[in-house]
Structure prediction request, 439 residues.
Amino acid sequence: MTDDRPGPQQPEQPRGHSCPPWSAGGQPESSWPPGHQPAAGPSGDPGGGTSSALGGDVSPPTIPIGLPPAGSPRSRRGRPVAAAAVLSLLVGLVAGGVGGAVGYHFASNSTGPRSVLDQPAPGTAPAMDPPTGSVEQVAQRVTPGVVQLRVNGSQEADEGSGMVLTADGLILTNNHVVEAATSGSDVAAVLQDGRSVPVQIVGKAPSFDLAVVRAQGVTGLTPVQLGSSTNIRVGQQVVAIGSPLGLSGTVTHGIISALDRPVRAGGQGSGQDTVLDAIQTDAAINPGNSGGPLTDMQGRVIGINSAIASLGSDLSQSGSIGLGFAIPIDQARRIADELIHNGHATQALLGVTVPAAQPDDTAAVVQQVTPGTAAAAAGIHPGDMITRVDDRLIDSGDALIAAIRSHTPGAQATLTVKNSAGASRQVHVTLGTQQVVIP
Prediction:
């Protein structure tokens, strides 16, 4: 590949100061004024030049490095080179000075910015409504109806989130958020305007991990809008709002990654009394999000954030790994309504005892059947294996409990049952009613 750049330039000879001409005889013509010629050299030539075998002096006159003595005549032959050097220096100084002055002038007086720091700040754009269905719009609609809850008990302290149900202070949250509260506990709700107000517990339903509390002495709160969890779909976008790690008003975004997950809200040691039929989401949920809303992209609440999966055994130090779980709002709405109007809640009852979930389970194995219950009336026996409730696959005892609790008391259900010989049959049951026990 050829290089199109110009080669190094040879320095130009100063104009008007050519080298002394040489005579036809091979000697330079004298430029010394009369009476100032230097003494003749050994060969009789001025300047002491050395004769060449070719004839004539081949050495030009030398230019002294030092200055001549004061009063002595200066060689005119040295002036062209010295003058050229001085002229070159003057030209360089003038050019440099002019270039610097011009550069300084443009740098000082240029109308363009010299750096991004000199650019003017953009003007404030007029406020615009957020795009419909955006996370920004959901946050604006829902955040005013979300509060932070703080519990300072005699034995322990806890915190979480809650969502406003009524303008006069009814709030729905998780039972495990206020579980530490006793008669001597200090329970408070921190509202969006920064006020901290005392809270009174209205009712609790531990098996659903739900509780209703009332903020005292408040009016004009902004309730959330409740949606429905009936027709939600895997892949649907959702927004979670709450107070993770005490950071109130935190908004995260994700999708519904699974439905009908049997989850123990209080962790693996909580027992089957707290098994949830949960919505799974990858929206970031962390400790402190519990009790806050999970919404669709219209800002309607479809679930209550309640639990997260953890890779470690220390749940207090766990954080989001993209596996969060929420109680479907259709279940929570019924439980909250019963707690507000009755002070207690009810749940559907099949009437069987099943073991806790095991990794190699493929069905819910019936251990005991309670006489007089729906299971007994349907002819279910110990040793039978329940593999489906309606069209939902049952692969463990926890899955059966979660599926039954997703029904309202008195609802009908179709069970697929396999006996010890491997024969399958379908039975139709009408679920009973049981009041939720508060330990």
